[in-house]
Design brief:
homodimer, 60s Ribosomal Protein L30, Chain: A, seven-stranded mixed beta sheet, four-stranded mixed beta sheet
Chain lengths: 346, 346
Amino acid sequence: MFENQERTNIEQLGEFGLIDHLTKNIKLTQPGTVKGVGDDAAVLDFPGKKVLVSTDILLEGIHFDLAYTPLKHLGYKAIQVNLSDIYAMNGTATQVTVSLGISSKFPLEAVEELYEGIYLACEKYNVDLVGGDTTSSKQGLIISVTAMGYAEEKDITYRNTAGEGDLLCVSGDLGGAYIGLQLLEREKQIYLENPNIQPDLEGKDYIVERQLKPEARKDIVELLKDIDVKPTAMIDISDGLASEILHICKQSDKGCNLYEDKIPLDPMTYETAREFNLDPTICALSGGEDYELLFTVKQADYDKIKLQMDITIIGHITEASAGCNLVTKAGVVHPLKAQGWNTFKS
Amino acid sequence: MFENQERTNIEQLGEFGLIDHLTKNIKLTQPGTVKGVGDDAAVLDFPGKKVLVSTDILLEGIHFDLAYTPLKHLGYKAIQVNLSDIYAMNGTATQVTVSLGISSKFPLEAVEELYEGIYLACEKYNVDLVGGDTTSSKQGLIISVTAMGYAEEKDITYRNTAGEGDLLCVSGDLGGAYIGLQLLEREKQIYLENPNIQPDLEGKDYIVERQLKPEARKDIVELLKDIDVKPTAMIDISDGLASEILHICKQSDKGCNLYEDKIPLDPMTYETAREFNLDPTICALSGGEDYELLFTVKQADYDKIKLQMDITIIGHITEASAGCNLVTKAGVVHPLKAQGWNTFKS
């Protein structure tokens, strides 16, 4: 990476020079940002609102592989995964801080590319970058993001408030990010075995983008407001559908029935899973990183929800004693299990 | 480390099991913490106040060396360095989030020890732990903390508001954390060369503690309120006195005279610097990690400040064209330079 391109040495700039360089063109757009980068702390204002705060850390070799992850996409994704948590509270995201650990061997141009993605995400989602920390790392690239936002107290959706009989809903489609990752891993292996073979990702744009450039579902939060539906509980899908459903059920002290045939799968996800001899349903249940919203709504909201193209009703909430169940296409009832990534790793 | 002690495998607990285990006994003390750990985002309330947010990342091999840093101290320090930024805004710190990257080879007992220090700092400084992210790391220990707090708008102290003629003040004493580090590094080298020789830190508790277990100066913020002094500018000393003075002067578009003979040095710092053939003044100017507060006050506040045992007036602010100067004990005037850690590395 960057072998044939311009390389500017970060060590010469130093930490403060680097921060100045990367932040000099920041445009603040949030009226609540009183003071952004450049002091000991950012100063923010949320008059009359509750403040939402969430944080995630992304590590090279654990969460991303620079062999197939463009830095601009990585910066974009690091912001998205954090904004997704604010939207999952039914809130408006307004600010982020970004802390980076970067090898001093990284050229300035690489850090600039990473920041391009960060700024692109901030601009698109109307969020201000207001602070951070930049340090050299002996340990690969490290990205730690904290996202802030706000909501009226009455609008906040927690995980522990799903009610019996509520409809279980999900935005978008599932499993694509995981299948996209399988594809990227396969092409990486082929390339490592024979560097003359170029990656073949043709026609697979959708699932590759689901992995490399997810979009947090701000639009769904806005849509739900527009149709006057407040979810009874909500969570974002970072660890796979099964894990997130179980979080809601456990914290709400409820059970659920999830119907396999209702789980929304994109045709490309389905076909590519089959190519890999993977069960598309398991990809959706345990694959993770889709950053869709999983939420419950009262049955009375059924008519409003059923008209929405981008929302699918996939089951309903039951009493706790009924357990959390997956009803398969064949009508067989299995206890729902959160297996997460490890399912696929052995 | 931990060779002869109980070892519980983190991999078996999994991420959620680990988080549950570490956070199950959290006691929330801040009335503004509406919802802490356990949802997509924490929910906080700061009625009528401005919100302060600051973030810092600590990396193994860059910011700390586990060869001589007890994990409990490290957890404590990770919180302190972040709270220090909130106090440097003249604010009240109220919440933190903590993201960790931990090798899966770390036993649970090690993570518990780290958290003991985190909780100890939170308890002592009356701050709630409200969220975070925990992941396995292939890259050594990574600790990313975000601190939040609040202040009335009129009370906030920025870096860019020092006025000509203002007095330059500092809390506590300087250079100790750096000298403590030199001592720990020396004992590590001796131990590596001959593991039968035990570290000799006797009588050096003060400077070792300055390095391993710094205390953010919440008390100084409270003291200044009690004596009714609002600093005209303030910053915390993480990178050495010179660097921080230059930040205030540059951002305020001012110059300064700093008097070498006024810089507060603890006798142990002075003596140990001499043992290492280091200039104690340079340790204070460029050593860093003292986490004292550097601030400017109006001359009219001189009578209030001069009575405070733990605050030292070390110079004054001048017009920008006069430059930033160090007046040595011999009366020679040198331009003040921020050399930071690198001074000592060659």
